[in-house]
C-alpha cells in the first residue's frame, strides 16, 4: 500500500487562537474524510498555553505583567502543563488519522508521542546536536552545562475518531526570557534551551520547517506535498460548518 498524502503547510506567524480554530476545523474535516492528513508548521506571537493537566500556580507572572509584555494566555485541550510559544520557535500541528492500536479500537497515543520525539531528535542530528528522552517526561532534551535542558515541548490531543491535534514546539532562536514567567511543563528542576545556544548558525524557521517535514513524513509513512493554507481551505467545501472535531 502506498503512503497516504500529507499536505505540508508553512503558515508563518499566526495568532494562537487562529491556529487553534484552524486545527479544530481541519481535524473535523479529516475525521469526515473531507481533508487530507496535514502538517501545519508555524510560529506564534508571545503566548502561554495551559494544558488539561496544567496548574495555574505554574504561571508566575501576574495578569498585569502579561499585559505589559504582550503575552496571551489560553487554556487548551491538549495534554500537559504550561508552556510558552513565541517568535523563533517552530511549532508543528499534525492533523493525522492514526491507525488503531493493539486493542483494535483506539490510537496508540504513547507511540505517537514517541514518534514525534524521534522526528525532532533526527532533525537536531542534522546540526550535530544529540537529542534525548528522559524516562517519565515527554519532550526532547539536550545536555547543556552538564545538565539536561528541554529544547522541544510536546502536548497532544487525539479525538475519538483517532485524529490528532496540537503537537510540538521546538526552540530555534526563541527568546528564553519568556520562560521565566512560568514553570515550563510544570518541571521545576530542569532548564530550557534553544538551538541557537548550541550551534553557531541556527536555521531560520522556513528552512527548519523544510528540513523537518521529510523526516516527519518518513516516520509516519506519509507522502508529503507542499500546499498553501488557502489551497487547503479551498478543498474543504462546506467543512467550514464543522467547528470541532468529534
From TrEMBL:
**Residue intervals of the BPL/LPL catalytic domain:** 33-224
The entry marks the following residues as binding substrate, namely: 78-85, 153-155, 167-169
Q: Where in the cell is it found?
A: Cytoplasm
Q: What is this protein called?
A: Octanoyltransferase
Pathway membership of this protein? Answer: Protein modification; protein lipoylation via endogenous pathway; protein N(6)-(lipoyl)lysine from octanoyl-[acyl-carrier-protein]: step 1/2
Q: Name the GO terms of the biological process aspect.
A: protein lipoylation
* One of the Pfam families matching this protein, by short name: LplA-B_cat
Q: Which family does it belong to?
A: Belongs to the LipB family.
Annotated Gene Ontology cellular component terms: cytoplasm
Site (Lowers pKa of active site Cys): give the residues. Answer: 150
Q: Which EC class, in a word?
A: transferase
Catalysed reactions, semicolon-separated: octanoyl-[ACP] + L-lysyl-[protein] = N(6)-octanoyl-L-lysyl-[protein] + holo-[ACP] + H(+)
Q: Which domain of life is it from?
A: Bacteria
Amino acid at each position: 500500500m502506498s503512503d497516504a498524502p500529507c499536505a505540508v503547510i508553512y503558515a508563518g506567524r499566526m495568532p494562537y487562537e487562529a491556529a487553534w480554530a484552524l486545527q479544530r476545523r481541519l481535524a473535523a474535516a479529516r475525521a469526515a474524510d473531507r481533508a487530507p492528513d496535514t502538517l501545519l508548521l508555524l510560529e506564534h506571537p508571545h503566548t502561554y498555553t495551559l494544558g488539561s493537566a496544567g496548574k495555574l500556580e505554574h504561571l508566575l507572572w501576574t495578569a498585569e505583567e502579561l499585559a505589559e509584555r504582550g503575552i496571551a494566555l489560553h487554556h487548551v485541550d491538549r495534554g500537559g502543563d504550561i508552556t510558552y510559544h513565541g517568535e523563533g520557535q517552530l511549532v508543528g500541528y499534525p492533523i493525522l488519522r492514526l491507525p488503531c492500536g493493539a486493542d483494535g479500537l483506539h490510537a496508540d497515543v504513547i507511540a505517537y508521542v514517541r514518534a514525534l520525539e524521534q522526528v525532532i531528535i533526527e532533525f537536531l542530528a542534522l546540526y550535530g546536536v544529540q537529542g534525548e528522552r528522559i524516562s517519565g517526561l515527554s519532550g526532547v532534551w539536550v545536555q547543556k552545562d552538564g545538565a539536561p535542558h528541554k529544547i522541544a515541548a510536546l502536548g497532544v490531543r487525539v479525538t475519538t475518531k483517532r485524529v490528532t491535534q496540537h503537537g510540538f514546539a521546538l526552540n530555534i532562536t526563541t527568546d528564553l526570557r519568556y520562560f521565566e514567567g512560568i514553570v515550563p511543563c510544570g518541571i521545576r528542576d530542569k532548564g530550557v534551551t534553544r538551538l541557537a545556544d548550541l550551534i553557531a548558525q541556527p536555521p531560520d524557521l522556513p528552512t527548519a520547517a523544510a528540513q523537518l517535514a521529510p523526516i516527519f513524513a518518513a516516520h509516519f509513512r506519509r507522502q508529503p506535498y507542499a500546499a498553501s493554507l488557502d489551497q487547503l481551505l479551498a478543498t474543504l467545501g462546506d467543512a467550514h460548518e464543522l467547528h470541532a472535531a468529534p
